[in-house]
Amino acid sequence: MPCAAGVEGLLADEVHQLTGLTGNDLLTGRGGVLANASWRDALRLNLHSRLTQRVLIQLSQTFYRNEKDLYDAASAVAWEIWFTTQQTFKIEITAQHSPLTSLNFAALKIKDAVADADVVMTLRLQRERMEDGLISSLEAYFRDWGITPERLALAKPDAIVMHPGPMNRGVEIDGTIADDINRSVIQEQVEMGVAVRMA
Predict the structure, then answer these.
(1) Bridge partners of 119?
(2) What is the separation of C-alpha 143 from the centre of its chain, rounded to a whole number of angstroms?
(3) Closest residue by Cα to residue 155 from 184, 176, 187, 181
(4) What pLDDT digit, counting tens, does each position of 37-76 carry?
(5) Where would you tag: which of 74, 102, 133, 147 has the fewest CB atoms within 10 A of its CB?
């Protein structure tokens, strides 16, 4: 939670009063406070804090050397959990002593990772090779990772969908997407895959 310089301690006190957080769950730094808080506490802070400028949620942390590293990190985030295609988003980058060539180019690379994919591809969940407990349920896997119309809507309008087959419909991919002749190239991919393996 960023704040004006000089009030970091006061913000930490306010966060403690609102959430009860202490110790390593509430760290004061230059220009703000870092809190290891629940979603409920984040909402409470957003509503009631008078000192923070905003409540930021950390979705990922990674080391980077260039714009491609940022692209890879942004690609690993399940953005569809946080907003839908009916909403807009904005990328802002601030950095000090950064190895990046251009902050504007870095912002564009992150935007490309969030949206505008040319190809959306998934692999088969090989249930026969899995031991118990790797995923909680097939329904949960589909909910969190499956290609759904909502997730596909984040890609370019003409993005193609790929899967090497065989598919577990309703697990890796929604059946309507797999059968969409305007987007899916799965049948061709499977046919060509057989030919390539036989060559």
Answers:
(1) 160
(2) 14
(3) 184
(4) 999 999 999 999 999 999 999 999 999 999 889 989 998 8
(5) 133
Dihedral sign for Cα 12, 28, 51, 91, please: negative
Adjacent-strand bridge partners of 2? 32
pTM: 0.57
SS3 62: coil
Contact call for residues 106 and 93 (beta carbons, < 8 A): yes
What type of residue sits at position 45?
A: L
Torsion of CA 26, 61, 140, 190, to 10 degrees: 180
- DSSP for 134-148, written as a single string: SSS-HHHHHHHHSB-
| 88-97 long-range Cβ contacts below 8 angstroms, 24+ apart | 89/114
